[in-house]
Write a structure and sequence with these properties.
Largest sheet: 2 strands, parallel
Shape: flat
Number of helices: 10
Strand order of the largest sheet: 1-2
Distance between the termini: 24 Å
Length: 274
């Protein structure tokens, strides 16, 4: 039996691997360039408006600690300038913690380019009419991911900070926090929320390619509810039930928004016969 040849308009397995290598390399280069900015900018410049400006990693750390300091100030009834909750017992902890913060900031900055590389990798397998989604795909996926991170920064982490600090205050504990442990909670919350906000985008493309339908999502909403509760229990930081309920509510909202997205994205014409 003869082995069928690869169609001329279809990439071979090795060409797919080569394309994947190229796209991964470009994405990594973009993150490395962004990391150079988020870690070292303004690169020690001593002239012009940047004179005396500290490296960007210290400004990032200032932004990262604000949600918790605001929660702490509300609970303590003190201005933030009087709060000094940070400590370290390892000389390398501040160095590696700020490096890690700069690295994740670089990933967030590079998100549009990374999503474009993802689209460029899957683009050869799409029909010509489907390739027109490149700009909407990059804009919407990047926008939803960043919107999730922004929501986490201004709302979700504020909620978590209040809940977790109230517990510590009720126990009569004094804050003496490690930077690396705080960044684990901070970055994890932003990342998970950004991924959560991608659910409507994923649903759109699955519905567009006839893999998922709004009717199917409504039919199995009870099964989805169980999965949402389990995912929230495992993925949300901390062991506080209120935080799990909070993230469950967000996922439930995104799920039913995705039902509407699936309904709007479903092709109205029947699939053409081969």
């Amino acid at each position: 039996m003869a082995i069928p040849e690869t169609p001329p308009n279809q990439m071979s397995f090795w060409e797919h691997l080569q394309e994947l290598r190229v796209r991964l390399t470009r994405a990594i280069i973009a993150v490395v360039v962004a990391f150079a900015v988020t870690y070292s900018f303004p690169f020690g410049l001593s002239l012009g408006p940047l004179k005396g400006m500290p490296p960007l990693r210290f400004l990032l750390w200032h932004w990262a600690q604000l949600p918790f300091l605001q929660s702490m100030a509300r609970q303590m009834g003190k201005p933030m300038v009087e709060l000094q909750p940070w400590a370290f017992t390892d000389l390398t902890e501040p160095f590696f913690s700020l490096m890690r913060l700069s690295f994740w900031a670089a990933i967030f900055i590079s998100t549009p380019f990374i999503f474009y590389q993802l689209w460029a990798f899957i683009r050869p397998g799409l029909h010509e009419r489907e390739r027109r989604y490149v700009i909407p795909f990059v804009l919407v996926t990047s926008g939803m991911f960043l919107a999730g991170a922004v929501f986490a920064y201004f709302q979700a982490f504020k909620f978590l900070g209040d809940i977790l600090f109230v517990e510590a205050k009720a126990a009569g504990l004094r804050a003496n926090l490690h930077i690396d442990a705080y960044l684990d909670l901070f970055l994890y919350t932003l990342l998970i929320m950004g991924v959560m906000f991608e659910l409507p985008v994923l649903t759109f493309f699955l519905a567009r390619f006839r893999i998922l339908t709004a009717r199917w999502m409504i039919k199995y909403w009870r099964h989805a509810s169980i999965l949402i509760i389990i995912a929230s229990a495992f993925l949300t930081p901390g062991d506080v039930v209120v935080t799990t309920v909070f993230f469950c509510a967000i996922l439930f909202t995104l799920y039913f928004v995705s039902v509407l997205v699936a309904w709007a994205a479903e092709p109205r014409k029947p699939r053409e016969e081969a």
